[in-house]
C-alpha cells in the first residue's frame, strides 16, 4: 500500500476488509433475538408489553424464553416504561415472578419523573457499566418528534438508540404501536404496516416482530417475524397469557414455531398417547405439565388420540 495512504489523517477513519473483525456476535436468544435493534410492533392492547416482559425475564434469568428459545448468556436488563405507574408495573412483575428481583434488573416508570432522554449521560453510563439490554415501552415516548413520518426526528431517535449500543448496550427493543387495521386479522403483518410511519424504523432494525392478538379474553397472540437481518427467522408461533400467567408466572407457548396448527394438534395427540401408554394412571395434571399445556388442552389432546379418563385410569375408546 502506498505510504501516502498509510500516513493520511483520514486513514484512521476507515478499515480495509482485511482489518475488520471476524468475530460473530451470538444471538442473545437463539433463533429469536439478535444483538442490535429489535422492534416489537402491534396494535394497542395486543400484548407487546407482556411479551417484552417475558423476554426481559428470560434475558435476566438465563432461562429459555417461553420454555423454547435458549438464552446462551444471561444479562442485565433496563426497562424504560414512562407510560405506566410504579404500582401497576410492580403488579405485572409479581405476576411474572419478578417482583423481588435483585440488582441487575432496572426499571424507570412514569412515577419516577420525566422520561429520560436516551442520550442522557446517565443512560449512556449505565450502558457502559452494565452492557444491558434496553426495552423502550413505547417508541413514541422516546422519539422526540410529534410526527412519526418526520425523517429528522426519526433520525435523531435512531442516533440515540445506536448511541446506547456504541456505549455498550447489547441491544435495544423498542415497542411500537402498529396501524389499527391490523387488529381485524384481515391484513397480513408486513414491515410497512407493523412499523407505521417512516421507513426509517424498518431500516434501522435488525429484527421486527408483529404481535397480533386473536383472543383478548385469554390473550392469545400470534408472533410473526417481518424482518430478519443476517439470520434465519423462525416461522410464526402462538402464545397464551391467561390463565398461564397466574398459574405458572409466564406466558405459554401454545403453538411452537415451524409447526402448523394441524400438525401441532397431531404431535400433541401422539405425545399424549405415548405418555398414557407408559403410565395409564398418569394424572391429568401431570399429563398437562409434561405436554406444557393447560389441563383442558391436555384432555382435548388425549381425547383426539382416543383416550378418556375413568376414575384414575385412562381408557382407550373402542
What structural category do the secondary elements indicate? Answer: alpha/beta
How much strand? 15-25%
Return Rg in Å: 23 Å
The CATH class label of the largest domain is Alpha Beta
Instruction: Encode the helix/strand succession as letters.
Output: HEHEHEHEHEHHEEEHEHHHEE
CATH architecture label name of the largest domain: 3-Layer(aba) Sandwich
The name CATH uses for the topology of the largest domain is Rossmann fold
Total helices: the number is 11
Average per-residue pLDDT, rounded, comes to: 88
Question: The biggest beta sheet, please?
Answer: 9 strands, mixed
Q: How many separate domains make up the residues?
A: 2
Brief description of this entry?
This protein has 318 residues and is α/β, with parallel strands linked by helices.
Give a verbal description of the structure.
This protein has two domains: 24-255, Rossmann fold (3-Layer(aba) Sandwich), CATH 3.40.50.300; 262-316, Orthogonal Bundle (Arc Repressor Mutant, subunit A), CATH 1.10.10. It is built from eleven helices and eleven strands. It starts with a helix and ends with a strand. A hairpin with a 2-residue loop joins β10 (307-310) and β11 (313-316). It has helices at 3-7, 48-61, 86-95, 121-130, 151-166, 191-194, 200-204, 244-248, 261-278, 284-291, 295-304; strands at 36-42, 77-81, 105-109, 133-137, 171-177, 207-215, 220-228, 237-240, 252-255, 307-310, 313-316. The strands form two sheets. Strands 3-2-4-5-1-6-7-8-9 form a nine-stranded mixed sheet, with helices on both faces. The chain has a two-stranded antiparallel sheet with strand order 10-11. The mean pLDDT is 88. α9 (261-278) crosses α11 (295-304). It is an alpha/beta fold and 318 residues long.
Amino acid at each position: 500500500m502506498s505510504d501516502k495512504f498509510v500516513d493520511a489523517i483520514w486513514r484512521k477513519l476507515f478499515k480495509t476488509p482485511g482489518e475488520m473483525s471476524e468475530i460473530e456476535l451470538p444471538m442473545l436468544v437463539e433463533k429469536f433475538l439478535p444483538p442490535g435493534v429489535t422492534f416489537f410492533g402491534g396494535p394497542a392492547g395486543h400484548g407487546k408489553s407482556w411479551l417484552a416482559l417475558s423476554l426481559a425475564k428470560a434475558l435476566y434469568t438465563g432461562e429459555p424464553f417461553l420454555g423454547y428459545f435458549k438464552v446462551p448468556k444471561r444479562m442485565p436488563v433496563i426497562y424504560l416504561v414512562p407510560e405506566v405507574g410504579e404500582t401497576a408495573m410492580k403488579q405485572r412483575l409479581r405476576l411474572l415472578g419478578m417482583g423481588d428481583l435483585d440488582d441487575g434488573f432496572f426499571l424507570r416508570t412514569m412515577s419516577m419523573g420525566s422520561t429520560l432522554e436516551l442520550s442522557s449521560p446517565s443512560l449512556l453510563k449505565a450502558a457502559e457499566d452494565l452492557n444491558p439490554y434496553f426495552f423502550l415501552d413505547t417508541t413514541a415516548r422516546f422519539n422526540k418528534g410529534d410526527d412519526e413520518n418526520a425523517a429528522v426526528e426519526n433520525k435523531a431517535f435512531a442516533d440515540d438508540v445506536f448511541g446506547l449500543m456504541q456505549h455498550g448496550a447489547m441491544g435495544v427493543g423498542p415497542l411500537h404501536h402498529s396501524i389499527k387495521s391490523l387488529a381485524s386479522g384481515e391484513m397480513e403483518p408486513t414491515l410497512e404496516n407493523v412499523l407505521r410511519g417512516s421507513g426509517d424504523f424498518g431500516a434501522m432494525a435488525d429484527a421486527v416482530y408483529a404481535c397480533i392478538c386473536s383472543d383478548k379474553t385469554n390473550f392469545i397472540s400470534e408472533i410473526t417475524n417481518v424482518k430478519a437481518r443476517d439470520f434465519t427467522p423462525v416461522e410464526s408461533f402462538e402464545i397464551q397469557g391467561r390463565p398461564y400467567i397466574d398459574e405458572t408466572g409466564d406466558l405459554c407457548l401454545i403453538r411452537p414455531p415451524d409447526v402448523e396448527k394441524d400438525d401441532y394438534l397431531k404431535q400433541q395427540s401422539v405425545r399424549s398417547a405415548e405418555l398414557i401408554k407408559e403410565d395409564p394412571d398418569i394424572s391429568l395434571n401431570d399429563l398437562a405439565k409434561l405436554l406444557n399445556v393447560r389441563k383442558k388442552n391436555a384432555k382435548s389432546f388425549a381425547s383426539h388420540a382416543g383416550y378418556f379418563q375413568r376414575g384414575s385410569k385412562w381408557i382407550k375408546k373402542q
